[in-house]
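Our platform keeps sequence and structure together, in a single record for each protein. This encoding replaces a full spatial description with a residue-level series of whole-number codes. We quote a single record here, exactly as it is kept in our systems:
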Amino acid sequence: MTQPASYVDQPRDPRPTDRVVTVLLLIALIVLAPAAGFMGLLTAMATDSCGSGNDCNEGLVATGVFTSAASPIVVALVALVWVVVRWRRGRTTWWVPLVAALVAAGTWWIGALITFGAVGW
């Protein structure tokens, strides 16, 4: 026996623990994302060895620093919007900040590797 279509379209009510865990993880993500962005700006210090006979690709350095500085903040904002959308639809949301943290860390490392590769490490 199948349920009427209106039953399928109704939003589900996630458990309160899902909401609490989501809020706590989002707070942690929103606090840590700017810190990671600041640490991304510090990857520019890899260019200290440039100029003393070591050729550096300045455009690639800028790309790497921008990627490692901006990506954690952008990922955190996208995760916040995604959580709100899923929350409004009655879906579970606890895993979204965790995935966002992994994606932010990965993109931060990609930016740092670009910067270090442009310097010639």
Notes: The mean pLDDT is 88.
